[in-house]
Write a structure and sequence with these properties.
- The protein has about 500 residues and is an alpha/beta fold.
- It contains 12 helices and 20 strands.
- A 6-stranded mixed β-sheet has the order 16-17-15-18-19-20, with helices on both faces. Strands 8-5-14-10-11 form a 5-stranded mixed β-sheet, with helices on one face. A 4-stranded antiparallel β-sheet has the order 2-1-3-4, with no helix packed on it.
- The longest helix is centred in the C-terminal third of the chain and has 17 residues.
- The two termini are about 45 Å apart.
- Bound molecules: guanosine-5'-triphosphate.
- The site of guanosine-5'-triphosphate has 25 residues, from helix 4.
- Guanosine-5'-triphosphate binds next to helix 4.
- GO terms for molecular function: GTP binding; GTPase activity.
- InterPro entries: G_OBG (IPR031167), GTP-bd (IPR006073), GTP1-OBG_CS (IPR006074), GTP1_OBG_dom (IPR006169), GTP1_OBG_dom_sf (IPR036726), OBG_GTPase (IPR045086), P-loop_NTPase (IPR027417), Small_GTP-bd (IPR005225).
Length: about 500
């Protein structure tokens, strides 16, 4: 972590990127900028110049990369990328000659038999010769792979070409041994579960939400056919026997393999999780995820340690018996929201859409911060501005860091104050974005705010105050770091999950 005077603006020396340092919390005086690989020059009113090299944590890269290979804010695009795929061209057929019967006159009976066998070319039902074809070009398929967790690698390699089909391997003479050119294998591209595949600026192709889901995105070219070349005087006679005779030079295009399809695609990753952890940077979301699941997220005491959602699995409640493992769920730790996240500030906007498929939210609040209730309101306000439906989703509030005296002392008053924010009204619609409505959403989305549930316009919902949305299911004071009251919290999360399961 590098400290700089607070009145600095940071400017990249190529002038392409001008940024005010990101303010992690509205009520702190600290600013931070995380950047990969940029040489930054900072200037203040007094024209004091510093040259600093900023590096982004958690991105693996070769130490030799130069500023030219700079990827601007790659963490913002871990979940969105444009790639181009090209299926393989078809292999070529061949222009073939019939063997000259006079050149190889059979000498004896055996030779005659051999000749006959040789001329036993494959024929179609109508008697025409079946001539070999060029191999089919490789198709391109995108499939959901559980082993993948981000789309970052596609920023390094954004072009994929399948192999072309094999040509008909012939020396120009028709023989009974001639075979079709080899078909090329399908190029299979793995993407994380929950990836949505769209045509670039176009229609939705697939939502690869389950392991094994796949979509054929580009079809390989057909192989070319083969044709027989005949001297003019024999052509007429042969054409009575077969249609595969080359009439003139323009027929040669039929021999060439067809080109494979090329498409530009947009891949959008939607995290598939039952529970979404939200909160300001540094609230302790990653620590909580690590405490209650086997996930190993990066944890550090500077904001935005989490650059992409970490997923963890929460087991069912063993105390309920084997048959009651109903609360088994996936948790996603979403990178810290900041004020203005819905407008794209900080890391927020791209991550907000990952809440779409969650059923239960867990607000993590740093109870030792200057104004925890304000922090809580900031996060709620960001959710409301991005998609008011998120505020109708059942949620639990975690007042974290109660091991610290300043948090412990005000826990009762904070709990009471937070419980007071909201109404008792139960929302009328089931809020969790179903897969269908996720699809509907994606056709209109293009990386922008989610569309709300039908019936009530999102404008109407945005006019509602935070107080008009439901209260939390529970407010629990914990210290995830010291393991204080974690069991109570788990109980509440499981109860919340059971509740949403029942209401589905
Ligand atoms: N004292 C105390 N510190 C905690 C507790 N929980 C988390 N922390 C510390 O708070 C800091 C931030 O924790 P993280 O889990 O990285 O916070 P985060 O909300 O995931 O942060 P972002 O990745 O920026 O969104 C770390 O230094 C943690 O050790 C707690 O219960 N008590």
């Amino acid at each position: 972590m590098l400290s700089l005077p607070s009145n600095l603006n940071l400017r990249f020396h190529d002038n392409t990127f001008l940024s005010s340092p990101i303010l992690p919390q509205s009520n702190t005086s600290h600013s931070s900028l995380i950047y990969r690989h940029g040489w930054c020059r900072s200037n203040s009113e007094n024209f004091v110049h510093y040259t600093i090299k900023c590096r982004l944590a958690r991105v693996n890269e070769s130490p030799s990369s130069s500023p030219d290979t700079l990827i601007k804010e790659p963490h913002k695009y871990f979940d969105q990328v444009i790639i181009t795929v090209r299926a393989g061209d078809g292999g070529h057929g061949a222009v073939l000659n019939m063997p000259n019967p006079r050149a190889a006159k059979p000498q004896g009976k055996q030779d005659k038999e051999k000749m006959w066998k040789k001329s036993a070319y494959k024929r179609d039902f109508d008697g025409s010769l079946i001539l070999p074809m060029g191999g089919h070009g490789g198709d391109v398929v995108i499939y959901a792979d559980e082993g993948k967790d981000s789309l970052l690698e596609f920023h390094k390699k954004g072009r994929f070409n399948a192999k072309r089909g094999g040509n008909v391997d012939a020396m120009g003479l028709l023989t009974s041994q001639l075979r079709n050119g080899l078909a090329s294998p399908t190029l299979r591209i793995p993407v994380p579960l929950g990836t949505v595949v769209k045509r670039k600026r176009g229609k939705l192709l697939a939502d690869l939400a389950r392991p094994g889901d796949e979509i054929l995105v580009a079809r390989g070219g057909q192989g070319g056919i083969s044709l027989l070349e005949m001297p003019e005087h024999r052509r007429k006679k042969l054409m009575a026997l077969t249609t595969n005779v080359m009439r003139d030079d323009s027929d040669k295009v039929l021999v060439l393999g067809q080109p494979g399809e090329e498409v530009s695609l947009e891949l959008i990753l939607r995290v598939v999780a039952d529970v979404g952890l939200v909160g300001l940077p540094n609230a302790g979301k990653s620590t909580l995820l690590a405490a209650i699941t086997l996930a190993k997220p990066d944890i550090a005491d500077y904001p935005f340690t989490t650059l992409m959602p970490n997923l963890g699995r929460l087991d069912g409640d063993p105390s309920l018996g084997a048959g009651m493992y109903s609360s088994e769920a996936t948790l996603a730790d979403l990178p810290g929201l900041i004020e203005g996240a819905h407008l794209g500030k900080g890391l927020g906007r791209n991550f907000l859409r990952h809440l779409r498929r969650t059923r239960l939210l867990v607000h993590v609040v740093d109870a030792a911060s200057e104004n925890p209730v304000n922090d809580y309101r900031t996060v709620k306000e960001e959710l409301r501005m991005y998609n008011p439906d998120y505020l109708e989703r059942p949620y639990i509030v975690v007042l974290n860091k109660i091991d610290l005296p300043e948090a412990r002392d005000r826990l009762p008053s904070l709990t009471e104050e937070i419980m007071r924010i909201g109404s008792d009204e139960v929302p009328s619609e089931p809020e969790r974005g179903s897969d269908d409505d996720a699809l509907q959403l994606l056709t209109t989305e293009g990386g922008h705010a989610d569309v709300s549930s039908p019936g009530i316009s999102s404008k109407d919902k945005k006019d509602k105050e935070i107080e008009d949305y439901p209260r939390p299911l529970a407010v629990v004071g914990v210290s995830v770091l010291k393991g204080i009251r974690i069991n109570e919290l788990l109980k509440e999360i499981r109860a919340g999950l059971r509740k949403v399961q029942r209401s589905q």
